[in-house]
Amino acid sequence: MSTDIEFFGADKIGGCVTVISTDTSRIVIDFGEDLPGCENPDKSPFDFQGTDAVFFTHYHGDHIGRIGEIPESVPVCMGETSYKILQNIWERVDKLRSRKMKERESNNTLLLFKSEATISVGDIRITPYSADHSAYDAYMFLIETPDKKILHTGDFRAHGYHGKELIPLIREKVRRNGERDIDILITEGTMMSRNVKKVMTEEQMKEEAGNIFSRNRYAFLICSSTNLDSLATFHNAAKSFGMQTFVYSSYISKQLKTFSDTAGSSDRTYRFSGYYLLEPEKQLTHEKWKKPKTQAQFMRDYGFLVIIKPEDYCRRYIEMFIDLTPVIIYSMWDGFLNVNHPAYNKIWDDFLKEQKGNGAEVIYLHTSGHADPDTIAEVIRAVSPKEAIYPIHTESSSGFYDLDIPQELKDRIVLLR
Ligand SMILES: [Zn+2]
Ligand SMILES: [Zn+2]
């Protein structure tokens, strides 16, 4: 009786795959793509022989992007809402994938799970626990085999709206107040290499957004369409200044609706009430108005937050309001704008420079989707694994030795290549 753990691409941010097998069962956790500009991409085909199921921690491309390579006979498992969010994306950009996944629905090779509902795969038990991340419906997995208890953190942080629940969850649910020991901790370490000590919380970012909107109520926002916390941050901050939220595509509108119907059903923070599809020429009427006005006039009267993408067809919307000196908020990872980084996105960088030249105000306001080193240390102390700590999803696993954790835990760190 022995449990075996194999790692692929652990020394990179993105594209990490973990394989856990016992004498009779084998599961794979995450099967994603490398980040753009990755220097050592893994293109080799993966051997799914003997795999009973693939579990996805969340819907980010670096965790789920290679789902199409998984043989149709191997079941895939993900969070219920993750699947809805992904279908919204696939229906827009990858209709074939969308159809293939629907086929999986009908032939029972797609399993959708909920937080804390244990799934058995042969002699392996997997319990997903909801985690705070820049993707909604992200999970940590507790994996119990006949001889080992393993916690795989997936991507996580503690500075989102549900971040405060992280440590109590580990103490009370994963560890059962000390009654359950964890042998092995597999943890992400993205921020170990991004030289950050403390990061801004979503609450702090909301306050900062409020400061911007208090002096400029004409705002365009560049933010990931799947980053629920940050979308809620800006939407709610704008709302408190009477500004209306607009989206430029029916795709983003669909994502906001999915978020409102799922996360928003139990938490007001995530209820995107009152947002409109951007149609500036559309005539609007209201009982309190003497005559109809265009949507563009309505936007000028009330102020607006427009969620855009730095693509060509968004330019005309900014031009339309350029006389108001609108603010463009860039709320995504700054690596995309760093000319020296392999992930540099010239189109976005040029777009922002051009808008600045046209008279718009450009502001960079973003918070990470990943735990800062102090939070990683807190998680390690709370889990206190008996046997080993495997850092994955990191370019700086040796940074784990600098964490504020007892020496006996440092001794259990295993650096992977
Ligand atoms: Zn990731
Ligand atoms: Zn992620």
Can you tell me the CATH class of the largest domain? Alpha Beta
**Separate helix tally:** 13
- Helical/strand content category: alpha/beta
User: Poorly predicted ranges (pLDDT <50, ≥5 residues)?
Assistant: none
Q: In what order do the strands lie side by side in the largest sheet? A: 1-2-3-4-5-6
Most strands sheet = 6 strands, mixed
Please tell me the CATH architecture of the largest domain by its name. 4-Layer Sandwich
Enumerate the distinct ligands: zinc ion
CATH fold-type name of the largest domain: Metallo-beta-lactamase, Chain A
Please report which band the strand proportion falls in: under 5%, 5-15%, 15-25%, 25-35%, 35-45% or over 45%.
15-25%
Helix percent reads 25-40%
Name the overall outline: globular
Q: Provide the gyration radius in Å.
A: 23 Å
Calculate the mean pLDDT score and round it. Answer: 95
CATH level-4 homologous superfamily of the largest domain: Ribonuclease Z/Hydroxyacylglutathione hydrolase-like
Can you tell me the number of structural domains? 2
* Overall number of strands: 20
N- to C-terminal separation?
26 Å
Task: Describe this protein's structure.
This protein is of the alpha/beta class. It has 2 domains: 4-195 and 370-410, Metallo-beta-lactamase, Chain A; 202-364, Metallo-hydrolase/oxidoreductase (Rossmann fold), CATH 3.40.50.10710. Helices cover 30% and strands 21% of the residues. The chain contains 13 helices and 20 strands. It has helices at residues 61-64, 80-93, 95-106, 166-174, 202-215, 228-239, 250-261, 263-266, 295-302, 312-320, 346-358, 373-383, 407-410, and strands spanning 4-8, 17-21, 26-29, 53-55, 76-79, 110-113, 119-121, 124-131, 138-144, 149-152, 184-188, 218-223, 244-247, 275-277, 283-284, 293-294, 304-308, 327-331, 361-364, 388-392. The strands form 4 sheets. A 6-stranded mixed β-sheet has the order 1-2-3-4-5-6. The chain starts with a strand and ends in a 7-residue tail after the last helix. The model has no long low-confidence stretch (mean pLDDT 95). One zinc ion binds next to loops.
